[in-house]
Amino acid sequence: MSGFGRECAEIVRAARPGTYRIGMILGSGLGSLAEEVEDAVRIPYTKLSEFPVSTVTSHSSELVAGTMSGVPVVILSGRAHYYESGNAQIMRTPVETLKELGCEVLLATNAAGSLREEVAPGSPMLISDHINWSGLNPLIGEEDESRFLDMSAAYDADLRAAMKKVAEETGDPVAEGNYMWFSGPSFETPAEIRMAKLLGADAVGMSTVPEVIIARFLGMRVAAMSVITNYGAGLQAHALSHDETKTMAKVGMDRMKELVRAFVKEVGNDRND
Questions:
Q1: Does the active-site annotation cover 206?
Q2: pTM of the prediction?
Q3: Residue 235, domain member (yes or no)
Q4: Which of 6, 27, 115, 268 is deepest in the core (most CB within 10 A)?
Q5: Exactly one of 24, 34, 111, 112 is catalytic; which is it?
Q6: Is 253 one of the annotated active-site residues of the chain?
Q7: CATH number of the domain where residue 242 is located
Q8: Containing H/E element for 39?
């Protein structure tokens, strides 16, 4: 654990004392979820050492600490991506800060492209596993045996069960599938999408996987959700664009908010989840 994570956690505690249970990372177009936090303090990433400020317009780059559904939470509203700097470790200090603040659970969200016709734009998809097609890893450079991290249960089965339970209770069941990480920033080609489908991917995107690896390295339990914003290249008639990503993420956000509130209540109030 770097000293930066401890330093940033102290800044957060000075602004809002307490220990937190659940940390979240919000993806493209999903920043409005941070507005659901009550009794909140908001700290710009520029005030936190080694926190990367995103260059993507739909990421607000601020930490929000407070409560949701009565559970203490910390939200990273916006992330930096590998494609912005060429650094797969770019989100290490933010995730370490969540850990230092006491977060046992990480819920990561992203905007993604669907490879399944029945999982349409505007839909949430629970991530059951991932394929790291980029070949990059944020643990490169670690010097001890801890770098040989077991990823066989990267996405916690009990947390996935909790998300599916609350989805059924809200009458809005979610799809579940494998997420494939491409480095970006260009979108995938139709040939790459065909390959991804053959390899077992259900959605593709440009984030999340490095953060999941870091969180598991730190001993956190992980759940992750994609908001589907488009179909992959060659699966829809029109060209892909980031504008479409932002627009459809906002459409899917209404469904995501209810699920996340219910998930936080379910997990945050069950110490044996």
A1: yes
A2: 0.93
A3: yes
A4: 27
A5: 111
A6: no
A7: 3.40.50.1580
A8: strand 38-44
Is 125 tagged catalytic? no
pLDDT tens-digit readout, 78-117: 899 999 999 999 999 999 999 999 999 999 999 999 999 9
Q: Could you give the CA distance from residue 89 to residue 111 in angstroms, rounded to a whole number?
A: 20
Q: Residue 273 domain-assigned?
A: no
Task: At 139, give phi and psi (nearest 5°).
Answer: -95, 0
Catalytic, out of 49, 183, 192, 242: 242
Q: What total of structural domains would you count in the chain?
A: 1
In the set 20, 36, 62, 81, the catalytic residue is 81
Above 50 in pLDDT, residue 273?
no
Which of 203, 206, 220, 223 is the catalytic position?
Answer: 206
Whether residue 184 lies inside any domain: the answer is yes
Establish whether 45 is a catalytic residue: no
Distance from C-alpha of 259 to C-alpha of 165, rounded to nearest angstrom: 10
| Domain interval for residue 18 | 3-143+151-268
Residue 209 DSSP label: H
- Catalytic residue list contains 207: yes
The amino acid sitting at 247 is T
Indicate if 28 belongs to the active site. yes
